[in-house]
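Review session, final week

We close the course with one last complete record, chosen because it touches almost every idea we covered. It is tRNA (cytidine(34)-2'-O)-methyltransferase, a protein from Afifella marina DSM 2698 with 155 residues. Go through it on your own first, then we will talk.
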Amino acid sequence: MIDIALFQPDIPQNAGAILRLGACFGATVHIIHPAGFVLSDRNLKRAGMDYVELAALREHDDFAAFEMWRREAGRRLVALTTHGRESLPDFAFTADDILLLGRESAGLPSDVRGRVDRLLRLPIRPATRSLNVANAASIALFEALRQTGGLPSST
C-alpha cells in the first residue's frame, strides 16, 4: 500500500487533512519529527475530524530513524517537490512507494532531497509557486493508487 510521509510538518490543519486523506484511502501517514505542533493539537483534530482515529499513524523521531525503518522495509521513497525532475503524470508508481512531502514553510532540505529515490513535481501553471501540501498529497496519492490498482471499491 502507498504511504504518505510528512517531513517535519508545520501546520496542524494540513496534517489533520492528510490524516483524513490516509483514513479515507487506507494509506499509513508517517510523521517525521520534529513537528511544529503536538499531535494532540485541537487544530489537527478539527481538520481531521473524526477520521483521525481511523487513520494509521506512525511517528519517527527524525529523518534518520525514518530512513532506517524505510530501508529495512525495502520501500522506495518518492518526494513531491518544486525541485522535482519528473512530472507526476509521467511517473510509474509501485504499490509499496512512500510519498514524501516537505514542510509547508521550507519544503524538503537539499540533504533530504538527496536521499530520496525519485523527485516528482506537480504540473502547475508557471505563474504559481506551489500547492498546499494537503492538496499535493491528495493529487499524488490518488494518482499512485489509481496506477497501482489500490483505489478502494466504490461499493
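Two points worth writing down before the exam:
The mean pLDDT is 92.
The two ends are 20 Å apart (CA to CA).
Good luck, everyone.
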